[in-house]
Structure formats: structure tokens, C-alpha cells
Design a protein that fits this description.
By secondary structure, this protein is α+β, with helices and mostly antiparallel strands. The protein has helices at about 5-20, 75-85, 105-110; strands at about 30-40, 45-50, 60-65, 70-75. Strand 1 and strand 2 form a beta hairpin. Helix 2 packs across helix 3. The longest helix is centred in the N-terminal third of the chain and has 17 residues, at about 5-20.
Amino acid sequence: MLSDQEIRTLAEAHLQQAYRTRATGLEGSQGFELIRMFDLDDPCGVYFAVESSDTILLGDGGFLVDRSEGSILHFGSGDLVRASRALNPGPMSNPGSMFPQVTPSVIQFLLKHPEEASPSSVGASAYQGVSRKWWQFWK
């Protein structure tokens, strides 16, 4: 099992490596803040979110550092939305919010039921009537 310091070191290295490519013009992970959100017991790990005051992280849902292996699993915001909707199929509790609240149960659902939270699990009826054409607005 990894210590809290080892987990923090892995998370900071992931921040440096993964978020550098998203930030044009920034050195390393400059401008990004690593936030330890919560610990998980089953599976054992720590979930981190990343915030930036000057860069919008579209599609980012944070990441989990596995305490036993040191592996890192990255989540997209769509993963969080689908898992949250699977756990709470009724009306959104905070309709003014663009993103669901990330709780340990949402992350555990993603880890234990990845096929149910994937986009392919959405029924075909959800896509009926949707045009599948690409439009080009430039020359």
C-alpha cells in the first residue's frame, strides 16, 4: 500500500505529464491546482480534481490514484455525468449546475460498472432523429 506522500508524488507527476499538453503556452503544470477530493476504501485509492484559474478544462473529470498499485485512472466529465445519472435517474438535484457533484459513490460506480456508464450503453432510442452529418463551415 502506498503512503499519502507517495500518492501525492504520483498525482503531481500525473499533473505535470497529462496537463502540460492541454495548456498552450504554460510551462509544465503552471496554472493548475491539484485538489485531493476524497479517499476511497473499496477500491482503495485517492480521487483528485484539477482546477485552473486561467484555463478551461473541458471534458476533464479528475483522476484516481490506486493506493495498492499506484496506477492512475483518468475520468472524463461525460463519465461523471453518465454515472451520476445512472445512480440518480430522476431530475437533477441542482439543475443550474453544469456538472454533477462528484461523490465517492459516483467514482465507485465508474470503477465497478464501466460498461453501464459508457456512451455505448445509452439506448438507440436516445439517438433517433439525430442527424449524423458533418457540416463544414470553412473553406
